[in-house]
Amino acid sequence: MDINANSQLIAGLDATMPQHLARIGMIIPAVNRACEPQFNRYAPQTLGVHIMRARIAGKWSRPIVELADEITRATQVLAECGPDLMVYNCTASSMKEGPAGERRILDIMHQAAAIEAVSTSAMVAEALHILEMKSVVLISPYSNNDDIVNYLRAIGVSVVCDVALGLPAIEFANVSPRRWVEIAYESNRPDADGIFLSCAATTQIEAVASIEQVLDKPVVNSNQAVLWGCLMRLKSRLGVIPPMPELGRLMQTLES
């Protein structure tokens, strides 16, 4: 084979691999079926997304002290792919014990790997703050939203309407984006600054722009907030980040 005669073919092979300028390593609950397709769809090509499953939610839900070994193992395994940022992406467990519990999760991750770590709950809090959402309609697939309400109260956000669908975790992803839009429309309150769609294992992210258009209010969703928070932290390394109108007003703040 004359390698020079096939230089165009070889160059084409090189071009098929996206050039990741930064990488995130994401820990998700084992039951989560939404994160891979959503982050592969919405993350810019310059951001590499690497995912590790852990038994941290659903039937495996338990106090953070009992999750320490599982979080440690997942962090250490994920760290081997060399991410620039580690993400603990589970809204329910990262909010379960309030801001102090979230800090304990990040402490466990820091001890397991010397890589910056962030959580869903912290990035949701940042997103709510930047969109000036001090009162929200809270919508989730959970059996109840008590832990989420308590976390939001601790960060200064009130819940004026609390909607929990009461689904088993394996069914979270079966709720269609259209249904999330309908629930948001039915649950909207005039005294709500916006809508918080809580859960990283749903199709909620696909409903964000439609809800904002229908209600003319900002919307924050767990995976949307996680992607936004990662881009905020890494944007100096990622080059030009393309507009993401399908992910709502939150992504527009990346331009500032």
What does this structure look like?
By secondary structure, the protein is of the alpha/beta class. Helix content is 44%, strand content 17%. It contains 11 helices and 8 strands. A 4-stranded parallel β-sheet has the order 2-1-3-4, with helices on both faces. The protein has a 4-stranded parallel β-sheet with strand order 6-5-7-8, sandwiched between helices. The termini are far apart.
List the helices and strands and how they pair.
Layout: H1 7-15, E1 22-29, H2 35-42, E2 47-54, H3 64-79, E3 85-88, H4 91-95, H5 98-112, E4 117-119, H6 120-130, E5 135-140, H7 146-154, E6 158-164, H8 177-187, E7 194-197, H9 208-215, E8 219-221, H10 222-238, H11 249-252
Parallel strand pairs: 1-2, 1-3, 3-4, 5-6, 5-7, 7-8
- Give the class from helix and strand content and strand pairing: alpha/beta
CATH class of the largest domain: Alpha Beta
Rounded to an integer, what's the Rg over CA atoms? 19 Å
Based on the coordinates given, report the CATH architecture of the largest domain. 3-Layer(aba) Sandwich
Low-pLDDT windows of residues: none
Instruction: Return the domain count.
Output: 2
Helix and strand succession? HEHEHEHHEHEHEHEHEHH
Largest sheet: 4 strands, parallel
Helix content bin: 40-55%
CATH topology of the largest domain: Rossmann fold
Instruction: Determine the strand fraction and express it as a percent band.
Output: 15-25%
| Beginning-to-end CA distance, first to last residue | 53 Å
Q: Order of strands across the widest beta sheet? A: 2-1-3-4
Total strands: the figure is 8
**Mean pLDDT over all positions:** 93
Number of helices: 11
